[in-house]
Amino acid sequence: MDPISSLCAEIGMPEEVTKILSETETGLPADKEEKLISALTDKATFKQAADELRAALPQDEGGFKKLLLMLRAALKTRGDYAKTGIRDEIFVSSMQCFSRFVKEHFESYRRYGFDRDFWVGRQLSMLLFRIGELEYELSEYEGKNAVSLHIPSDADLSPDKISASLRDAKAFLSEFYSDYADAVMFCYSWLLSPALEKLLPANSKILAFYRRFEIRKWDEDTDGYKQWVFKDKTLAPECFPENTTLQRNMKKYVLSGGKVGEAWGILKS
Fold first, then answer.
1. Contact 196, 229 (CB under 8 A)
2. CA distances from 169 to 21, 80, 197, 201 (A)
3. Segment 97-122 mean pLDDT
4. What CATH number should be reported for the domain whose range is 127-269?
5. Which residues pair with 229 in a beta bridge?
6. What is the pLDDT of residue 1?
7. Which residues form the GNAT-like C-terminal domain (predicted)?
8. Strand, helix or coil at 71?
9. What are the tens digits of pLDDT across the range 136-150?
10. At a CB cut-off of 8 Å and minimum separation 6, what does 214 contact?
């Protein structure tokens, strides 16, 4: 099995996508690919490299050429993990973002594709790690080291699972990034919206997660929640599906003038 197909198997890439990748080539010169891979795996240059990659591959239906090159970059990242001494298990968990994003694309459009090339440089440059159910990104807050928490769409928000993730992340940071071991942890997400208290039962796992944070800012008018709750950010409220209790409650709430938005909060000590 070639290295990309092997990696795809490890991270749970859909077989159909693995086959597409095996039949894909970027068409870029080898030296150009090498430079892009080097830049994508560098904390200081991954954003610029993602822009350059998009410019270099303007004709890329489904985003599979970009996905292929970024998975090649992930092979380099694996070596960087090994040099740092970080367990391969964390590498695999972190790189499962590629499979997750491809599957999310299918949920929204009923076809596979990759459109998160702007984001995954964080994983490739070892700025963001998945530890248990949550992702942890080395960041800043008020000029000091901080950790930005991200909630993958497949995360289990059961309180015990979240507590385990936070505990393991603290140990990970203490071992490999000691400057962040006692840093503030913050999160910006629709999952922190105060509106959820009106939409979910008191024993909800989502509310249990929400209550871990001190909410500092609520952007009521943003609509990022549409993508995560209804799988389509373009939907008008009257077209929201009603397949879950949350969808039904949120649709009724928004149609009656309520706002969900997204909120920013700091993890309580």
1. no
2. 33, 19, 28, 29
3. 97
4. 3.40.630.120
5. none
6. 84
7. 128-267
8. helix
9. 999 999 999 999 999
10. 265, 266, 267, 268
